[in-house]
Design goal:
The radius of gyration is 27 Å and the shape is globular. The protein has five domains: 95 residues, Peptidase S8 propeptide/proteinase inhibitor I9 (Alpha-Beta Plaits), CATH 3.30.70; 356 residues, Peptidase S8/S53 domain (Rossmann fold); 145 residues, Glucose Oxidase, domain 1 (3-Layer(bba) Sandwich), CATH 3.50.30.30; 35 residues; 106 residues, Immunoglobulin-like. By secondary structure, it is an alpha/beta fold. Helix 8 packs parallel to helix 9. The chain has 19 helices and 40 strands. The protein starts with a helix and ends in a 5-residue tail after the last strand. The strands form ten sheets. It has a seven-stranded parallel beta sheet, sandwiched between helices. It has a seven-stranded mixed beta sheet with strand order 20-19-25-21-22-23-24, with helices on both faces. A five-stranded mixed beta sheet has the order 33-40-39-35-37, with no helix packed on it. Bound molecules: 2-acetamido-2-deoxy-beta-D-glucopyranose (NAG) (8 copies). The site of one 2-acetamido-2-deoxy-beta-D-glucopyranose has 3 residues, from loops. It is found in: Secreted. Keywords: Glycoprotein, Hydrolase, Protease, Secreted, Serine protease, Signal. GO terms for molecular function: serine-type endopeptidase activity.
Length: 779
Amino acid sequence: MNLHWVLLFASLLCFSLVAGDERNTYIIRVQHDLKPSVFADVQQWYASTLRTTTTTDVPTKSLMHVYKTVFHGFSAKLTDLEAEAMKARPEVLGVYPDRVRKLLTTRSPQFLGLAVSGPNSLLTESDYGSNVVIGVLDTGIWPERRSFHDKDLGPLPLHWKGECEEGKGFLRNLCSKKVIGARFFSSGYEAKTGLMNETVDTRSARDTEGHGTHTASIAAGRYVPQASLFGYAKGVAVGMAPKARIAVYKICWDKGCVDSDILAAIEKAVEDGVDVISMSIGANVIQYNLDPISIGAFGAMEHGVFVSVAAGNDGPGPVTVTNIAPWLTTVGAGTIDRSFPADLILEDGQVINGASLYGGPPLPANTSFPIVYAANVSALVEGQNGTRISSYTARTCAPKSLDPELVRGKIVLCERGGSPRASKGSVVKEAGGVGMILANVVPDGEGLVADAHVLPALQITESAGSHLLEYISANPNSRVRLSFRGTQLDVKPAPLVAGFSSRGPNIESPYIIKPDLIAPGVNILAAWPDGVSPSELVSDPRRSEFNSISGTSMSCPHVSGLAALLIGAHPNWSPAEIKSAMMTSAYAIDLQGKPMVEQSQFKVSTPWDMGSGHVNPSRAVDPGLVFDITAEDYVGFLCASNYTDREIHSITRRPSNCSVKAKTVYDLNYPSISAVFDQPEMSTIFITRTATHVSEGVSSYIVTVQNPKGAVVTIEPPSLNFSAIQQRQSFVIKVKATGNNTVVPLGESKTEFGRLTWQDGTHVVGMPIAVTFEKPLVL
Ligand SMILES: *[C@@H]1O[C@H](CO)[C@@H](O)[C@H](O)[C@H]1NC(C)=O
Ligand SMILES: *[C@@H]1O[C@H](CO)[C@@H](O)[C@H](O)[C@H]1NC(C)=O
Ligand SMILES: *[C@@H]1O[C@H](CO)[C@@H](O)[C@H](O)[C@H]1NC(C)=O
Ligand SMILES: *[C@@H]1O[C@H](CO)[C@@H](O)[C@H](O)[C@H]1NC(C)=O
Ligand SMILES: *[C@@H]1O[C@H](CO)[C@@H](O)[C@H](O)[C@H]1NC(C)=O
Ligand SMILES: *[C@@H]1O[C@H](CO)[C@@H](O)[C@H](O)[C@H]1NC(C)=O
Ligand SMILES: *[C@@H]1O[C@H](CO)[C@@H](O)[C@H](O)[C@H]1NC(C)=O
Ligand SMILES: *[C@@H]1O[C@H](CO)[C@@H](O)[C@H](O)[C@H]1NC(C)=O
């Protein structure tokens, strides 16, 4: 789902429209309390607004969605001029062009399973999430899969008010006590892309891509014995909250997902009564008041709905994290303790370790094959005498880039980039190659993801890739062997932060650490639709009930499902308290007791990589203390972040007055800490936090601090005594710089990390501390 390609597609379409009259989709935010009383409802009012602002004959036709719950306003097709006129209207708070978002999957189908069964206390305390509804905003669902059966489920939760919307290939009777609602949202998409292509998209909640079926079953799939891909890695497949109900909101289509539809779906989901919204989609970061997802999620949060989102797959570079509003739970990806080793054996006996989920017929045993570098075997350009196609296209094995004369019977070394990984294997296969080595390139590093290749193939690391290139250069006619070693369990170290998982710091609010935490997102086995191959290649005829793919798209629904369990166990907790419970109980130490490492360079990971750490469900159910945040607290934070009253109004849908809020950005009761020294005269930062005691009876907590370099952190008071559940106590974190930012080069910043931990003998309440010394270019 390449965003650039999507935009190019959209702009190509605009070409065919009459110049000057091209209409784009806009989302218009309206101050709804200004509605004149002559209009019976806002729909009439918006239609009238459109009549007076646009030149179209049938203005009501350009009115696409009307928003009333988490957002007030509508979406409509407007010309640039009309959009400008709309902005000038007094009741209009904002006019945003619709954007296309991408699904956050590292498109790498794989063959193995994650047989997760949560901790028993959490599962039983929550009755497996039975009374909780998870709204999955994605590509739809394949409801017939065993993962979605409704055997032995109780009646629908009483708070559920949603519907099962019929559409092509999706009759109402497909909804059940498991999949309790299904809707689809396409008007924004159709306006943006011109038309729905019904050969590739089905106009209903039916999933024709795979992503939505996969994420829904990660969050709430039922126990399915004998789950496997082609008999590989048999086991029990199960989601996080096996009895939670799934409500499907299909918002993503062949070319992506569009803001106006996403917002309409969030709105409907909240009206329908979902408890959790799971959104594994992303786009570039923009200011919260311009981002319909941040806006929609703010409204959802106010209605008590927990919203979890994927952090993005643009790691390992810094400042790549997306979906960063403080009221969202932003989830990065980690590995699990399972891998799929495959080896490349060179003629001189050297063994290069890689990863693969190739499961087809093996190469003849002990037979070696010539290896060639894709850039040196590229196809001739048609009609140009002797010219070969360009080196980048060839070395990344783009479609039709290889010369069959030079590839036949050989193993080809391809590099990552440009096209989906599994598609490169099919390019080699079409050219007559017998195998492929897929090498990471800068900045992929040492992170490996195994794929369900269509021919014998394995992925190797960046360093192994450069070594192999030198080897082939030095040994032009060498032969190699491949060996697939199946599934390896108890892999150490684990978990690792996935190489592709997007990293902080948070560009919009450096005072908030993002991502918030990580969860499993590499090689995750979950349900897969019929009609889509596990490699997702149209040319691949293989089908499977389950598939294994990777991405923060997969880690997000883990947290959504766990949130459903926590809500089941603690129905009165606010979304911020649920998130706090997961964050303060997360671990930054891996399962071997060593500091958690990140996959791309095998360096110790920091809170910019993993946030508070890896989610730890059995501890999250009984966190001891939680840190609550109200909608008003977020408003104070936005004021302190210099958002204007008007911008804040766009997010909160009500007037706000920052001049009566004496707040600092450090007062938001966030369950992690980031202090930024951005002025030369700053020497001390005071940060306040308020803990709510969520255990019965009396407890006495004592704090310990692991100091970041360059600062001394003290906590006042250093002990907190609670005598009853729900009691609140505040403490102040004093961060005193021992160095100063003169050591940081102009325009740069340096961050050091520490941690504070409250302990009462039973509970461990941890918070990472980031201290940044920054020297902005403009002082
Ligand atoms: C619809 O998709 C099919 C399959 O990708 C493609 O061949 C066809 O050209 C598309 N039609 C339109 C109108 O884009
Ligand atoms: C392949 O080589 C290994 C080790 O040299 C040997 O044990 C095995 O018997 C060989 N297999 C075949 C089919 O030749
Ligand atoms: C192509 O190049 C070859 C050798 O360089 C030459 O003999 C031949 O005439 C060229 N053909 C054309 C169509 O240019
Ligand atoms: C690719 O071809 C060039 C030019 O013939 C040669 O110098 C280089 O070693 C080749 N590289 C590999 C990896 O085979
Ligand atoms: C807000 O603006 C004031 C005045 O320009 C500045 O001193 C302060 O640092 C800004 N705060 C943030 C969080 O950017
Ligand atoms: C905001 O509050 C201040 C102080 O109470 C007041 O002077 C000002 O008029 C208020 N502004 C708005 C827009 O309500
Ligand atoms: C909490 O109780 C301990 C032990 O009784 C005591 O030493 C400490 O001062 C108390 N802390 C506060 C903040 O009252
Ligand atoms: C900042 O640090 C430098 C080097 O350690 C020192 O020379 C300077 O006096 C310090 N400035 C302030 C304002 O503390």
